[in-house]
What we know:
Elements: H1 2-19, E1 50-56, E2 65-75, E3 81-91, E4 103-107, H2 119-124, H3 132-136, H4 138-146, E5 150-154, H5 166-182, E6 194-199, H6 201-216, E7 224-228, H7 234-241, H8 247-260, H9 272-280, H10 286-292, H11 311-318, E8 331-336, H12 344-356, E9 361-366, H13 371-377, H14 379-390, E10 399-401
Parallel strand pairs: 4-5, 4-6, 6-7, 7-8, 8-9, 9-10
Antiparallel strand pairs: 1-2, 2-3, 3-5
Helix pairs in contact: 1-4, 5-6, 7-8, 8-10
Amino acid sequence: MWGRIILVALVAMVAAAVAMPLTHANVPFPDDDPFYAAPAGLGAADNGAVLNSRPISVFGLPLPVAGWQVQYRSTDSAGAAVADMATVLAPLLPWFGPGTRPLLSYQVAEDSLGTRCAPSYALRGGRDFSIVNTLLDVPFLTEMLRRGWAIVVSDYEGPQSRFFDGVNSGRGVLDGVRAAKSFPPLGITDASPIGAWGYSGGAFATLWAMQQRASYAPDLWFAGVAAGGVPADIAAIAQRVNGQGQAGLAVLILVALARNDPGSGLYDALNQNGRDLLVREANACGADLVARYVNRQLDDYSDTPNLLWHPAFRTATLRQELGGNAPDVPLYLYHSVEDDVIPVEGFSALVENYCTQGANLTAVHSGISGHNPAAVVESLGVLGYLSDRFAGIPATPGCNVR
């Protein structure tokens, strides 16, 4: 009964949100909301320390879910203190499962160049086209709540919206978990099992977090971690979509890398059209760019032919590739062999890399065709895997690839 009530309510929420895409429901964008501003003394706080919090009505609707926005301290890839934001969610009923209520860190594919695309804005009830990526994850969030799990959804790209900055995103995830774990209203204890899950851009942040866990957050242990549609071989992703219907994703990658990594030389490889692009799309969401740049060629933004093969582009992408070290937590990885956005070859190479380094993982090469269909169908395996880990059932040791 409880699960049915949540499902019906959230389906109604999606319908309402889609019907009112351009009204804000009195929720300001993060850049216009004083609650997001970094407080004084930020640098003196510990990583993961809760700086501020406020209760929210999830999606701005009277749903049977408790929610809060939690501002927390993190450290970006340049070593600077930043004030990040997370949304924490919990079912209203007590936990009836074994042990204590689990905490699941869920990484929405933020895929953004501006904070209006952050999941915290959508989850508080913002009404704008920028909420589309968060809405796509409503079925997964619903099922996790139905199972009684507490959830933390971090704006892991941080206040500068640094898409494809692995160190920054991974630290944002880990410190978001620290903040949720220490936030009293959520009721998480040291005995609570912790998991993590992300798909596509969310998988990027999830795996970068796990690669840094031992060095950056050894106080956290994850019973199980799932990542699917994994963005491995970033250059191959841009090449796959360039000139195609989802060419806006290649534009997103180009703008993010040129902005985030000025030392790569990528900015210098752009022509004036490319530099104007960086200014014009400085706060765009991935969904905006997909809609605006259908079939666009990235060579339009450089006087050098084959920009995606330019040494500066390769330098910028290689710095953000997964695989530098293998996570030491149990992993469940999955990817469509016919993914129309992210070529499967990069995924297979990453799995082999992790296995060579001694990772404990299950990897599924899915026969479900397409990036988004695989996300839906393969979620059933993910939920079963995480449920087993939360129940204390050990993961199958070694590398299990199928």
